[in-house]
């Protein structure tokens, strides 16, 4: 994979280090993660929200150890090792794909007294509608995030086009949010919020790395989009300050270091390569 992505800070830091340490003891439910990875943070937030006992195991997915590949042939984090009772011998089976992991955790850990409410609405229509916006996050917002982050002068599209694409998808998203808020579905934090939260926490990187920054207009300067951006600020503030989000974040400077290779478009990560080649993200 080259030295590019293996020079990452090796461990969680800040509040994520505290949370990881609390979950460092051997447990049959194991989350294999990388502190920098937004897909991992989705799974981590879900574990935290639902108060699920587990072990967090930090790995560098760019160094594909045989043991890790045996669990997840795709060699990606997050990977979840799930306990399965095979008669007398407890065993583990792997699960991967962040959205699949989150859905699984929500479904299996459903004891309201210890796990709290489901992260999905109970009503079938509302649940299906939540999935539309989860799909919008994964299929539209996230690919646009990487196209913007990996923009260089060598691209066939301009920086302004990349920025407009991301902002357009964010506006479409927030216009569908419950107007009262603060979360997407209203007063309850839900899976829609979980799915976008990690990238929300990384939006500051556009101000660090891209000329003109993220480009969300300041209050009062949103023109015809003023209401949408005001609603965006309410959502962003509520999600960024959610305990489960704060507890799964490392130090800002470490993200700045980790995303330099994305901003310069030199990283060899699967996500970056797919973005470069115009393919669907892994
Ligand atoms: N679709 C996957 C994406 C996971 C992913 O791309 N993880 C990255 C880290 S952020 C990874 O493991 N990369 C290793 C590689 O690209 O070789 C998910 O949602 O879980």
Automatic annotation (TrEMBL):
Top-level taxon: Eukaryota
Xref: Pfam families: GST_C_2, GST_N_2
GO cellular component terms given for this protein: cytoplasm
Keyword line: Oxidoreductase
Keyword Iron set for record: no
Domain GST C-terminal: start-end pairs: 123-262
Record-level Gene Ontology MF annotations: glutathione dehydrogenase (ascorbate) activity; glutathione transferase activity
Residue ranges annotated for the GST N-terminal domain, each copy included: 27-113
Keyword Acetylation tagged: no
Entry-linked Gene3D superfamilies: 1.20.1050.10, Glutaredoxin (3.40.30.10)
InterPro entries: Glutathione-S-Trfase_C-like, Glutathione-S-Trfase_C_sf, Glutathione_S-Trfase, Glutathione_S-Trfase_N, GST_omega, GST_Omega/HSP26, Thioredoxin-like_sf
Protein name: Glutathione S-transferase
């Amino acid at each position: 994979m080259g030295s590019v992505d293996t020079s990452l800070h090796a461990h969680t830091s800040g509040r994520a280090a505290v949370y990881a340490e609390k979950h460092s003891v051997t447990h049959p439910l194991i989350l294999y993660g990388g502190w920098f990875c937004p897909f991992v943070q989705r799974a981590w937030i879900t574990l935290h929200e639902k108060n699920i006992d587990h072990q967090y195991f930090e790995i560098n997915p760019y160094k594909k150890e045989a043991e890790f590949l045996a669990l997840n042939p795709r060699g990606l984090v997050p990977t979840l090792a799930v306990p399965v009772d095979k008669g007398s011998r407890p065993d583990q089976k792997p699960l991967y794909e962040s959205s699949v992991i989150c859905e699984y955790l929500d479904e299996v850990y459903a004891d309201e007294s210890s796990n709290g409410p489901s992260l999905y609405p109970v009503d079938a229509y509302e649940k299906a509608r939540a999935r539309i916006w989860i799909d919008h996050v994964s299929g539209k917002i996230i690919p646009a995030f990487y196209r913007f982050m990996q923009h260089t002068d060598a691209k066939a599209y301009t920086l302004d086009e990349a920025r407009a694409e991301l902002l357009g998808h964010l506006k479409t998203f927030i216009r569908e949010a419950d107007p009262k808020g603060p979360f997407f579905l209203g007063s309850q934090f839900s899976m829609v919020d979980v799915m976008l939260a990690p990238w929300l926490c990384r939006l500051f990187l556009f101000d660090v790395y891209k000329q003109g920054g993220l480009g969300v207009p300041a209050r009062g300067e949103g023109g015809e989009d003023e209401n949408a951006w005001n609603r965006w600020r309410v959502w962003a503030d509520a999600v960024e300050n959610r305990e489960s989000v704060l507890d799964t974040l490392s130090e800002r400077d470490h993200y700045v270091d980790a995303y330099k290779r994305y901003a310069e478009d030199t990283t060899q990560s699967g996500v970056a390569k797919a973005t470069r080649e115009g393919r669907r993200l892994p």
